[in-house]
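User: Show me a protein chain along with its predicted structure.
Assistant: Here is one chain, sequence first, then structure tokens.
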Amino acid sequence: MSSLLLEWIGGLYAASVWGLAAYGAALAVALAVAVWHRRPRPPAPAPDEAGWPTVLVQLPVFNERSVVERLIDAAAALDYPAGRLMIQVLDDSTDDTAARAWARVAALRARGVPITYQHRRGRDGFKAGALAAGLASAPEAEFVAVFDADFAPAPDFLRRLIPDFLADPRLGMVQARWEHLNAGQNAVTRAQALAFDGYFAVDQVARSRAGWPMNFNGSAGVWRRACIDDAGGWQGDTLAEDLDLSYRAQLQGWRLDYRPEVAAPAELPPSLLAVKRQQFRWAKGSFQVWRKLGARLLASRRPLHHKVLGWLHLSGYLSHPLALASLLLSLPVVLLEGHTPVRWDLLGWLSLAPPLVTIWGQIRLRRKAWRLRDYPILVIGMIGLALGNTRAFWEALTGQASEFQRTPKASAYTVPLDWTTWGELLLALYAAATGLLALERAPGLAPMLCLYALGFGGVAALSLWEAWSSQPQTEMEW
């Protein structure tokens, strides 16, 4: 390999590393803002009983036999003035979930609960299509709350969030924090709980308090009906209908907010294969929204730093292709004996942002019940997801369509292996071999290569173990 080619590869490696540094810097800024705004804002005053607006609660489900009845019961238990609450079960299931849901709805209706059941035969628009169809059948609803099947909101959920809208006519959406029903179930759920705690304690706090572009997380939030309509309604042309509507609403001038003190318990997927499917959908959907709205964001009248932070937000999953590129380019960099235009001292400081975010999440949300012992599992898992999320990036970039695949809960459904697991094994071997070579020629790169080997190897091994140990069942996909 010629020295000129090696230099070019070294430059590409540096570009991928500096790209990762940009996302690390954005995370560090968000952490600083979240710490500065650590004191919660006082809640808006509640109206008298006659002043509460009409609220529609939408429950979109698809093949959720293990959790659908819990969801419906939690929605029916919401405390809200009589005559001003409507509940819709939007069920597109193709298995016995439909019978379970209908039976529970019928029993609740017999007790006077204002709940209806809608079952679509087609899958047009997936979740966005179900929400849009339900909304069209309830024109009187002023506000809309959405809960996915794995959630169980507390009875006071609506009474704590609706007053915010009455205090600000330009407030379009309020997101609540996700709590975890099964955080301690296994290593996979513990690592996810760490990640979500950091995200909700830092990123969502910083964006909402600083006025940066933020997003509805798809569940446990309330929308103003006028905001949904003004932004163009739910649209099913991306896999991230929540992110899509959020940015369209903000580009129309609506404000979104986040209330960390209001928590909605939810169930985390307990298997790595389910997490990989979920992450693929989120990554591809985010990239699709980036393609769809990125140019509009840059052309908007928002302040420059809002545009930059919004752009980094929409493209956040780009860190995975960049990480994969840095791994693949590491062998020629090792042959260069580590000589690249990279300021490793600066990158070392920026690399502290992710663990500090995790620590702050535990300080703010868990107090003494820290789960930091599981942080190495989270790091290994995030590295190992890079191949699948890079595939998501490529499919979004090239306009490849795919179905909205639901995230299985419990063991009622299984997720099949795909080719990425074997790719992860190959990447683990590549990282290990390059790391051994780096010990002699570029020892400064060896620790990161070791992490890559552990990440891809660990994710591949656990994926294979889950696939081979699970009982064969028919997989119902959304």
